[in-house]
Amino acid sequence: xxxxxxxxxxxxxxxxxxxxxxxxxxxxxxxxxxxxxxxxxxxxxxxxxxxxxxxxxxxxxxxxxxxxxxxxxxxxxxxxxxxxxxxxxxxxxxxxxxxxxxxxxxxxxxxxxxxxxxxxxxxxxxxxxxxxxxxxxxxxxxxxxxxxxxxxxxxxxxxxxxxxxxxxxxxxxxxxxxxxxxxxxxxxxxxxxxxxxxxxxxxxxxxxxxxxxx
Length: 214
Hints:
This protein is α/β, with parallel strands linked by helices. It has helices spanning 12-23, 37-46, 66-76, 91-99, 112-123, 131-149, 154-164, 169-176, 180-193, 199-208; strands spanning 3-8, 28-34, 54-57, 81-86, 104-107, 128-129. Strand 5 (104-107), helix 5 (112-123) and strand 6 form a beta-alpha-beta unit.
């Protein structure tokens, strides 16, 4: 029995390339291809999800992206397998996809053999993430854990906030009723504590923590 596949990618050349790969494999049947995630959702709504074994999707697509498509497909049928094949490696996106039970994530640079291995693994009930994706995800989680462990005092938050707002050392000292030497010590300690290289790193941290708004 052949496995039914859906392929969605807004780049026709890549879509045709995937179609060609699976058309030359005896175990697969392509039941639908599209450049639109919205069209895939309509197709799945009109056909029993149990008749569809796997949806292979890009991430960056107009109107509905691959993250939203995965979420909606899983809401329609949690047993429906989804494989993301993309050039984008944003750790936040990878994290979101994993939280919404994506079954696999592969780079568009992957060889045909790895693509087929990923598909076979998913159809057997497993998960498949390329080494590159796993490394990015692991590093992101490790970084998140380290950040969670870092606790800034109220005074350190005051200092980093004013640094991010481009106050000078003297202006910060005057505002917080501290000496310039004390502010310089805070700055050096913050750079070491947050494992950043300079004031730009402190500013990025303050923005990330929403101590200041753009």
